Amino acid sequence: MQPPILEIKNLSKAYDHGKNPALVNFSLGLNKGEVLGLLGPNGAGKTTLISILSGTLRDFSGSVVFKGMDLFADRQLRNQIGIVPQEMAFYEELGAMENLMFWGGLYSIPEKELKKRAQDLLALVELSSRAKEPIKKFSGGMKRRLNVAIGLIHQPELLLLDEPTVGIDVQAKVSILDIIRQVGLQGTTVVFTTHQLAEVEQTCSRIAIMDKGIILAQGTLNELIRIVGEKDIVIVSGEFSADRFSDAIKPLIHNDIEILSITDNEAHLAFANSEGIPGMMQHLFQQHVSLADLKIKSPNLEAVFLKLTGRSLRD
Amino acid sequence: MSRTILIIKNDIKRRLKSPLSTLLFLIIPFAMTALIGLIFDPGAGGETKLPPIKVLLVDLDQNIASKFFIGAFDQKQLKDMFQATTVSENEGEKLMKKGKASAMIIIPERFSLDLADQKSVRLVVVKNPSEEFLPAVVEEFADTMAVGFSALAQIFADEIKIIKLVGNTSLEKISFAELTPFLEMSRVKIMAIKKFLSPLRIGLKTSVMAKPGQVSKAKGFNIFAYILPGMLIMFLLFIVEASMREIQSERADGKIRRMMFSPLTTHELMLARIFSGWLLGLLVCSLAMAMGALVFGIDWGDYFWLFILVAVTCFWSAAFFGMLNAFFRNKNQAGALASPIILVSAAFGGSMLPLEQIPSSMRWLAGFTVNNWFITGCREIGAGAIPLVSYGVLLVSGLLFGLVAVMALQRRLTT
């Protein structure tokens, strides 16, 4: 078995003189060619992790081994990693081709080779026809695609994408996710941070769920779903407080019904046997809990996330 | 180094694609210079009330013509304009070195006698190098007086000889009161033949205190040359600061994080940023100075030394703002602090007010501003000197700031 291409061990980082932990003994292994979705809400520590890997954040403990070597011992090792920051990290006054030539130029790639790679990447992100146009005229989706292309110009072995689909429409999102899948299929290892469940479900070969600086669970989608078991997810909404609903549902909690999360006006419950749902409804009416809606869903990543973190990704 | 050049080339390409902000920075100081110049230029019809100009008079002649010359400063109109003090030559030099007067006029020995003998004589005007406008007024006045005295000497050459013979005495013994009615009667004669006076009997020798042995080129006073350097340095600081603030933008929008994954080092990045800011400042400043020469007719002096001055000033500005931006936490902090720094530097450095108008107790602050060194350098070059002190101060402090900038950026990017 091949050793992992990236191995993060016990990485810890805290801000404000240790008062505000961002990563707590974070460990993760990544095999070559894997597309890992790093799923977590805001403040989970995703961007801190990427900043440490880029070398722009120090004063951390733990180790990062890339291709069998300490990532921070050799600056050249980092050159084999590509980054797609959350921000649009390119020069908007210039064209797409000019940007690719500039960013590629920083890696001292011979000009002829660089031009060829830039053309191929523009084709991959479907921007060949607008290669010379100033980027400031591009739509949000086109800019995001170019952002990904720049991260790939030096043909990195590991590509880090920090929430690459933020702020774009559905069509553009689909396009970006498709590019990430293609990159993964070409053998590049990808780490992709997001708080969009559907994106990792569609794109990643492996998923890691992190919150408050630690990994709560990781595995394939099916492996993660098994954490909640083969249960139906029931979402109940209405005009109630979290405390009121907890008190009302408490007598029904047993092996067949499990509370995933309860917030004001919404509760997520897992049912091993859906036949118990009418009984629960009747009980809640008797307890004068004001209900407005009820939805039943098959087990999914969202349920896993709720079970692990006790909160929705949007929180 | 190739990566540094790549970033500089990229910056040039970007600026050429959106040159509006650069052009604005070029036009604003120029427009302000034109506006202020037109308001204060007497030729434009503006009324300008100057403070009395401090003039030192050294009378080595001690005879009728020199007394007549000195006496002219007691006339009502001239009294409003000049604050004249008669001093010995040594005392005058000491006071000039202390910057206590705008100019010193030296009336040479045998001035009156040589004038009577129809020989050419010279008045010497020593100008204070730290001022430009007021010494120029003194120079103009001395020039006018020279024309007047030349007229007298030529028109009344025969009469002066007769007076000397009839009186059988030396000119020292003839009183001004005796001569005045005679001069008054001849006034009409002077006015009639004024245009035929040639050649002038009295020449004017002008020198700047810093180079006592050197005679400056005879130049008319150009108010735009007085204003433009101050405006230019102030806006140069703004434009270079805006260019150096890119460090903040690049940090905020993830470009620097992306760069840190490439082989580019923080040293190369800061070097590129400083050179890029330097190049932009050099371009804008050179264009503005060329426009100043073409539109306002400014004679900047030796262009080689001027180019060196602009180059070291732009380097200083880029290094200084590179350092500040490496220390600043973000773009907002940079924006909030840089502008006051530039404005305070402009106020104390002579961009907003002439240095000679700043209270002497606060003038020492000018030495800490780039504005002062640039303006002084421009004036020295204009007067035919080489501003070695300005070069030295700007280059050494610029190098120091550049070094601190590199270290601070390294620290800022890896915290």
Brief summary:
The complex is a heterodimer of chains A (315) and B (415). Chain A is of the alpha/beta class and 315 residues long.
| Helix count, DSSP H or I runs of 4 or more residues of chain A | 11
Question: Strand order across the biggest sheet of chain A?
Answer: 6-7-8-3-9-10
> Largest interface by residue count?
A-B, 34 and 25 residues
User: Structural class of the secondary structure composition of chain B?
Assistant: alpha/beta
Residue stretches of chain A low in confidence (pLDDT < 50, at least 5 long) are: none
State the distance separating the first and last CA atoms of chain A: 40 Å
Strand/helix succession of chain B: HHEHHEHEHEHHHHEHHHHHHHH
The class by helix and strand makeup of chain A works out as alpha/beta
**β-strand number of chain B:** 5
Q: Could you describe the largest sheet of chain A, including whether it forms a barrel?
A: 6 strands, mixed
Helix content of chain B: 55-70%
Query: Radius of gyration of chain B from the CA trace?
Result: 28 Å
Query: What is the approximate shape of chain A?
Result: elongated
Radius of gyration of chain A: 23 Å
Strand content of chain A: 25-35%
Q: If you average the pLDDT of chain A, what whole number results?
A: 85
Q: What is the N-to-C order of secondary-structure elements of chain A (H for helix, E for strand)? A: EEEHEEHEHHHEHEHEEHEHEEHEH
How many distinct beta strands of chain A? 14
Molecular shape of chain B? elongated
